[in-house]
Amino acid sequence: MKLRGYRGTDRELLTGPWLAGELLGLPIEEWPVLAEPTQVPPPAGPDEELCVADGAFVRYTGIDWVHRRARVEIGVHSGLSEVDALLEAVVAHGFTGLNLRRLHGWVTPAAAPGSGALAAAGFRREAVVPAATWFDGAPAAREIWGTTRHD
Fold first, then answer.
1. Distance between start and end Cα atoms, the chain
2. For residues 105 and 73, is the Cβ–Cβ distance under 8 A?
3. CA 119, 123, 124: angle at the middle one, nearest 5?
4. Strands 102-107 and 69-76
5. pTM
6. How far is CA 148 from CA 67, 100, 125, 141, in A?
7. Cβ distance 64 to 94 under 8 Å?
8. How far is the C-alpha of 48 from the C-alpha of 59, rounded, in Å?
9. Cβ contact 146:123 at 8 Å
10. What is the pLDDT along the chain (151 residues), one digit of tens a residue?
11. Of 80, 135, 129, 90, nearest to 106 (Cα)?
12. C-alpha distances in angstroms, 111 versus 29, 45, 99?
């Protein structure tokens, strides 16, 4: 899978039924009818990189060019079945294309984020924050997952 740069015609990929800010935002099947879909803004400055792939967007945000790290957000539409290949492309672009050393992001386990796919891509759970977000009518834990390039 190959990531490419964001274009204005890709705007529809930035809206969907997943939790905002997730490292791996997979579509939530029982998305409430009255809930607004999550909307991700286009890049607004030099500390953001927005890429798209078939049926998904990848946002590197809060890029710290000095310490070479960034938070990653991914939004996947229902048509993408190649989550493993997408995560591999995300890590490769972050480490090679952007020359970063560390990638990290939020994961809400109750939203079924596919932690097996994250682990296969080199991400590891680093911390758990209890009751950090509201999900399905109750507080839910969020986890910080990260990966580091060792060179």
1. 24
2. yes
3. 85
4. parallel
5. 0.91
6. 12, 9, 12, 23
7. no
8. 7
9. yes
10. 789 888 888 889 999 999 999 999 988 888 888 888 999 988 888 899 999 998 899 999 999 999 999 999 999 987 667 889 999 999 999 999 999 999 999 999 887 767 788 999 999 999 999 999 888 888 999 999 999 998 7
11. 129
12. 10, 30, 31
Q: Taken in order 11, 17, 21, 23, is the CA torsion positive or negative?
A: negative
What are the φ and ψ backbone dihedral angles of 128, each rounded to 5 degrees?
-120, 130
73, 25 Cβ separation under 8 angstroms = yes
Are 23 and 59 in contact, with CB atoms under 8 Å apart? no
Q: Which DSSP string corresponds to the chain?
A: ---EE--GGGGGGGEESS-TTBTTBPPPTT--TTSPPEE-PPP-STTEEEEEETTEEEEEEEEETTTTEEEEEEEE-TT---HHHHHHHHHHIIIIIS--SEEEEEE-GGG---HHHHHHTT-EEEEEEEEEEEETTEEEEEEEEEEE---
The Cα–Cα gap between 122 and 43 comes to: 26
